[in-house]
Amino acid sequence: MDNTKAKKQQVMSQTNNQDIKEEVNLQHKLEIERLQKEVLDYKTKFLRALADYQNLEKRMLDEKTKLIQTANKEFILKLLFFLDNLNRAELFIKDANLKMIKQSFEKLLENEGLKEIVVLNKPFDPYTSEVIDLVEGEKENEVIEVLRKGYMLSDQLLRSAQVKVSKKIEKKAN
């Protein structure tokens, strides 16, 4: 009987060992699942933080670009006063050096994206020009004289042109 008792104890011991191993395996599986979920959670948080950072970088770059464009726009607008004076001086002073300086200055501004709005002898456009005076003329609503040039900067209106516009006046028959 001792032999059967020993066998029973051995079987029970093996069963207990197997139960313990299964319980440990189950605990390990649960721990692995918990750690996998935790890793996935950290990965998701990391990817969100990375996306937030990339969006911040992009937003900061856009703001920096806009700030530079605004500063350039304000500076070029101030330089237009000087260009107007060069244009007026050129009317009265016929000097090759003055002309060269003016052309050089215009080229510099052009390289920064400044473009003159050509309005002379064209129909009046209220988006690019402002009427200073109406003058009797042959055609209706045509720009006949530019008093101050208008300019675009990077496809945006920087300064509107000041112009004289023709007004057709019909003569009444007596």
From TrEMBL:
Keywords: Chaperone, Cytoplasm, Stress response. Coiled coil: none annotated. The gene is grpE. One of its GO terms (biological process) is protein folding. It is found in: Cytoplasm. This is Protein GrpE. InterPro entries: GrpE, GrpE_CC, GrpE_head. Gene3D superfamilies: 3.90.20.20, Head domain of nucleotide exchange factor GrpE (2.30.22.10). HAMAP family: GrpE.
